[in-house]
């Protein structure tokens, strides 16, 4: 069955240390990474689109060309005069990565400013993905515009998918962070949190507590990711089900583990509706992704099973 998937958020310019003082340019961001892997694994009769705002400058144009080149559609992306994409730099020192960010005036902060445009994009989709990072970059009024549109989408029977991706440094206020993440979950039918984030910020004692809390907010389906320990699924009336992680001999770079899991999971779940087999496939994908550098690994590098 053909369908349309829309992922909403911020894609940034990535600068990574190359040789000496040289920097290599790339593009990444949690919701874009998820769209990239969903595109990789969805059949051709599905469309995958990214929703954000970029500037009218050269690097914004290059980012759009990059996104298009991965097969992810850019037709819903608004271009805003006078703004530029956010940027981050990865520093590598003795094998350890650290990050610097320049995103306080990024164009993506305006992604929900044109409510009619947002509505048209959401209405044209069957699955809509967003994250706690999407919410973190928006001003409170823009969060409300986005969430009211997503609540409407959920009520209309669309699958609204939320990865809380809790990043405290993006929020100026912890209470607002927790309230907004909870409001995001309330607008969603499928929540895909990482247990370590939830335990740290919501104080969940165990995975069952995370499931109970998101169930209590009205999310019918939950996938709790727990790194190498596997995922726990709570879908509709089914009993919780556990799917182990795949074995990884040597971790190279865990960037995008959760995002690739989400994209691969949704690609399978969208087509056959079976969360357990989708989680197995997603675990194999994430395990392959973390054995390579970078957020966006080419399909040819992921191994013959994928
Ligand atoms: P995030 O990157 O969002 O914090 P997790 O660390 O929970 O997410 O990882 C997401 C998924 O990536 C896990 O559910 C698992 O499938 C896979 N994964 C992460 N770390 C490992 C690991 N060390 N070995 C095998 N799989 C892993």
List keywords for this structure.
binds adenosine-5'-diphosphate, 306 residues, alpha/beta, 22% strand, eight-stranded mixed β-sheet, globular, 10 helices
Under CATH at level 1, the class stands as: Alpha Beta
Report mean pLDDT, rounded to a whole number.
Answer: 96
Low-confidence stretches: none
CATH architecture: 3-Layer(aba) Sandwich
For the record, the count of structural domains works out to 1
In CATH terms, what is the fold-level topology?
UDP-N-acetylmuramoyl-L-alanine:D-glutamate ligase
Taking strands numbered 1, 2, ... along the chain, how are they ordered across the largest sheet? 4-1-9-10-11-12-13-14
Major sheet:
8 strands, mixed
- Compressed to H and E, one letter per element, the order equals EEEHEEHEEEHEHHEHEHHEEEHH
The CATH H-level superfamily is Ribokinase
Bound small molecules, by name, code or SMILES, are:
adenosine-5'-diphosphate
Helix fraction bin: 25-40%
Strand content: 15-25%
| Class from helix and strand fractions | alpha/beta
Which helices and strands, and how do they pair?
Elements: E1 3-8, E2 12-17, E3 23-28, H1 30-41, E4 46-51, E5 53-54, H2 58-69, E6 78-79, E7 87-93, E8 96-102, H3 115-123, E9 127-131, H4 132-136, H5 140-155, E10 159-163, H6 174-186, E11 190-191, H7 195-202, H8 207-216, E12 221-225, E13 231-235, E14 241-243, H9 257-272, H10 275-289
Parallel strand pairs: 1-4, 1-9, 2-7, 5-6, 9-10, 10-11, 11-12
Antiparallel strand pairs: 2-3, 7-8, 12-13, 13-14
Adenosine-5'-diphosphate binds next to helix 9 and helix 10.
């Amino acid at each position: 069955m053909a369908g349309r998937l829309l992922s909403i958020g911020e894609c940034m310019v990535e600068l990574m240390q190359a040789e000496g003082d040289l920097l290599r340019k790339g593009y990444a961001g949690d919701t874009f990474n998820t769209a990239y892997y969903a595109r990789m694994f969805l059949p051709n009769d599905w469309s995958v689109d990214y929703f954000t705002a970029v500037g009218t400058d050269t690097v914004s144009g290059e980012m759009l060309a990059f996104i298009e080149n991965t097969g992810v559609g850019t037709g819903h992306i608004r271009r805003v005069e006078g703004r530029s994409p956010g940027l981050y730099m990865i520093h590598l020192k003795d094998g350890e990565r650290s990050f610097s960010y320049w995103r306080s005036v990024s164009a993506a902060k305006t992604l929900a400013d044109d409510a009619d445009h947002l509505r048209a994009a959401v209405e044209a989709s069957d699955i809509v993905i967003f994250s706690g990072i999407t919410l973190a970059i928006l001003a409170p009024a823009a969060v409300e515009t986005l969430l009211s549109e997503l609540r409407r989408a959920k009520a209309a029977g669309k699958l609204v998918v939320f990865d809380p991706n809790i990043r405290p440094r993006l929020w100026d206020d912890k209470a607002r962070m927790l309230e907004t993440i909870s409001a995001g979950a309330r607008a969603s039918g499928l929540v895909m949190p990482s247990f370590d984030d939830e335990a740290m910020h919501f104080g969940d004692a165990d995975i069952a507590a995370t499931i109970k809390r998101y169930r209590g907010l009205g999310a019918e389906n939950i996938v709790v990711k727990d790194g190498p320990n596997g995922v726990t699924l709570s879908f509709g009336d089914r009993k919780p089900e556990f799917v182990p992680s795949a074995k990884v001999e040597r971790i190279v770079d865990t960037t995008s583990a959760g995002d690739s899991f989400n994209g691969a999971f949704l690609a399978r779940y969208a087509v056959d509706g079976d969360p357990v087999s989708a989680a197995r496939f997603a675990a194999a994908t994430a395990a392959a992704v973390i054995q390579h550098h970078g957020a966006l690994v080419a399909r040819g590098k992921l191994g013959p099973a994928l």
